[in-house]
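Hey forum,

I'm writing up a methods section and want to include a predicted complex as supplementary material. The small molecule is flavin-adenine dinucleotide. I've pasted the protein sequence and the SMILES. Can someone with a working setup run it? I'll credit the forum in the acknowledgements.
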Amino acid sequence: MSLVYDIIIIGAGPAGLCACLKILAARPATSVLLVDKVVPWEKPIACAEGVWTDQFREAVDVKPGWVRFNISTVVLHSADGSAISHTARNAGCIIDRARMQSDMASRCAALGAVLRLGVRVIGIEPVAGSTREVRFADGTCAHAAVVVDASGPIAGLGKKDKIVCKPPDLEPACFVIAENAGIEPDAIHVYLGRDLAPGGYAWAFPREKNAANIGIVLGNSYRAKVNIREKLDSFLSKNYPHARVLGRFAGTIPCEGRPIAIAAPRLLKAGDAASAVNPFTRAGIVEAMESGTMAGAYALKTLLAPTAGRGSAYGEEYRKRWYNSLGKKHGKLSKTKDALVKIPDADYDKAFATLSKIPPNKRSISKIIGLSLGRFPRLVLAMRHLM
Ligand SMILES: Cc1cc2nc3c(=O)[nH]c(=O)nc-3n(C[C@H](O)[C@H](O)[C@H](O)COP(=O)(O)OP(=O)(O)OC[C@H]3O[C@@H](n4cnc5c(N)ncnc54)[C@H](O)[C@@H]3O)c2cc1C
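Reply by user p_vandermeer:
Happy to help. Structure tokens for the complex are below, copy them as they are.
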């Protein structure tokens, strides 16, 4: 196996796979090594797998078998049990990430990428001459003109560079796959409440055979203060008493809304490694795909740059382009989230009770804001960050 590549991509998640496909579609002659510490599609993926259909289809060429369920209804529950729902036919879907990532990796290999799965990257060395060295846990190493780090939220690579090595604001999340949950196959449920999920929310998304993905995410500031597993168990016994747990999983969601350094000379971060997650919804699949695709394009520009200086400038261009496409919006959403979590449950309970009385077909944003202005000023004030 050659140990020198044009581009090394670390992580065969949505970000790394999209980066790889972008590079090889644009310039088939590029030599690319795609490396992952595991075979991701052979392990349970810590994710609820919900995406917005339009965004998903824009981000990737969706293949048959990647969608488990089409989702038409979102039900929001407040702490006292009041609920409001919104229905839009097939607006979202629950995907099968293992199937998708396996198919995408096969496509990468068919286009010429070398896949090295089951070996962990332990370090990315600073630029020496015109390459970087990537070191593996088995003692081997490889060199590349450009490295894309799409290793997810906690790998902590790039310590020797002026770049974010672990995203700040990491939120803990855990979930179960449970059968007999009784969730409609075309609806997702989101539960709010300070006691239920401080700083975050709980969810229940459908899975095959009357099973469900039921989980909880907490705000970063509650990491060490709240036992998330106990919170999930009490949520399950209260809301899904008949569900039988088949497996338990945990993960971390990077929710930083402020701009962070995602590029260094010949090194670009993408996806969760670059904190590309929507900090409000905590959705990161499509965001990782968009970020990975963008990182792939800039990795190629860096590779082909006529001078080292020009190559480094592409890193800065990449950072700016990400900021202008989604980063800026994520900043506003993060501020909104911070303001909303400070509002007492009672405000949400009242707002949900009021809004649930408006017939769903008349529940327009202007109507909601008009109604809320006088009655729930704190909620409206929190939303100002979105303006
Ligand atoms: C519990 C939970 C539920 C979620 N639910 C949703 C949801 O419903 N919808 C949504 O849009 N988003 C959801 N997310 C977020 C979403 O999972 C991530 O944003 C998304 O997976 C990011 O993709 P990525 O490619 O950046 O990283 P990842 O998917 O994490 O991929 C990174 C890859 O890098 C590999 N890797 C890590 N370290 C190394 C190393 N040192 N060497 C080599 N390889 C390495 C890993 O094995 C992995 O395959 C959820 C997250 C969690 C934790």
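Some notes you might quote in the supplement: The pocket of flavin-adenine dinucleotide is lined by residues 10-16, 35-38, 40, 46-51, 120-121, 150-152, 155, 173, 175, 215, 251-253, 271-272, 277, 283-285, 288 (CB under 6 Å). Residues 302 and 311 are 4 Å apart (CA to CA).
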